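Let's do one together. I've listed all components of the complex below, 603 residues spread over two lines.
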Amino acid sequence: MQYQSQAVAKPYFIAAIGLFVGQILFGLIMGLQYVIGDFLFPEIPFNVARMVHTNLLIVWILFGFMGAAYYLVPEESECELYSPKLALLMFWVFLIAGALTILGYLLVPYATLAEMTGNSLLPTMGREFLEQPTITKIGIVIVALAFLFNLGMTMLKGRKTVITLVLFIGLVGLAVFFLFSFFNPDNLVRDKLYWWFVVHLWVEGVWELILGAILAFVLIKTTGVDREVIEKWLYVIIALALITGIIGTGHHFFWIGLPGYWQWWGSIFSALEPLPFFMMTVFAFNMVNQRRRNHPNQAAVLWALGTSVMAFLGAGVWGFMHTLAPVNYYTHGTQITAAHGHMAFYGAYAMIVLTIISYAMPMLRGRKAANSGKSQILEMWSFWLMTVSMVFITLFLTAAGVLQVYTQRYTDNPQPFMAVQERLELFYWMREAAGVVFLIGLIIYIISFFAGSNEPEQA
Amino acid sequence: MSKTFTKSMARNIFYGGSLFFMLLFAALVFDSESSLPDTDNRQAITEEVALGKLVWEQNNCIGCHSLLGEGAYFAPELGNVYTRFGNSTEAIKAFIASRPKEGIPGRRSMPQFNLSEKDLNAVAEFLKYSSGIKNSNWPPNIQG
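Okay, and this is what the predicted structure of the assembly comes out as:
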């Protein structure tokens, strides 16, 4: 660790991992509810479990992004963080607000939570992924503003690099587009139109800038390749991401009451969205091949390469599979969507956070550059267990989705939704089994932080 | 990457490209807004429908169901439930009101939300309004 204030990243990373565990546990509950319909009913109905699962995902990824920014901005800017105290304060604000929100989901009926938090004054709740009470949303904005202020002030007084600039643009975009979550017109079509300004322009827009910047930072550090080369790649990747991704938003506009021309705009541009992800894979492998040194933290290099491959498969390939309007007409809102969502989120955003944690945590815990060999071997096991089981979760959901599309939609004699669901049971059981393997991988991941911690560093 | 393609060229493509496509996107959204009255069934949005949307949101219906294909995939699509239930708000209301409190052993079951008569009417009207949105004939058939 070159700057003391980088240490504020540590609680952010720990919180991220803790919430990640919660997300997976609720994922397993939901997976079981898919086959044992009354599991935990009526205490934790599916909608509550899903809200906890997806909101924990968003929150832990945000913790990861913030931790990453607090770690890499001082190092890139070559100066201490503007205010470590503010960063720590915001950590607690965000954690407590997040925890209270999740407890609210679990302890009281959602309608009661809406009433308690005065949702009718400014109704923003009850829309997918934006279920947080309005007051929590306001809290998120405050935390984001304080966070951006802190980073901005740090960047202003220090060295300006492409990585911090791109990261900052991504984070500003994240905060700006979140503001659309406060816009909730009575008109369902307009509600959906602007809802995508948050959801799509996050994950298929500005988050890709954050992803690219973190990946570029870790690659500079672990491969020793010239910064100029890496920065050029970064610009090309994020240029492609936004050029394809902004109009690519149109692939969500096919069936929600918007003009038919979106079927053309959305299909063509989103069909190109895999390109930046493919470039990212080429980039990561090229940089590692041209490395000027062998970094002792081999686990971090594995995560970095893994992210580039899994993001391409999950976001790129699985996204392309159902993005063309004539295909999407049949697949929209089926298990195909669920399959894509799982691998894309894991491959792009979960793995990039795990990459930066893997790279930074040894230093944050007082090591020079890397964990012991024993710890790294366990971490690599967890990488493979989680990644391979996520591939299988995706494959089983895809199989379920194909069968669902066929029997419910792409046939002369369409079956009712619930009748189709019963026929998919086998695949749902296999998905649940893969999910258990994922949890085992996650447990091993956590053990890797404690195993071999008094052994010497990997050389 | 080739040496003739420089970092500043890449940077310019990023800024120029992003800006251009953001403006194009804004223009398209602006144009969409102006043609929405033809498709979004806005004439059907009464005060009751607006209340129904709030009831829909405050009970987190989207946590299990999809609406125009968006949401969760645990329970049936509801964008066309009004037509699936024989163009009847009464059938929708009867279904919601009759959900067993303790669920159905071994099976998925919608929770009992204990909606007031007013809220029940409103949410049914909201679903009726949703079914009137012209969305390029999606879903492909009545099963959703």
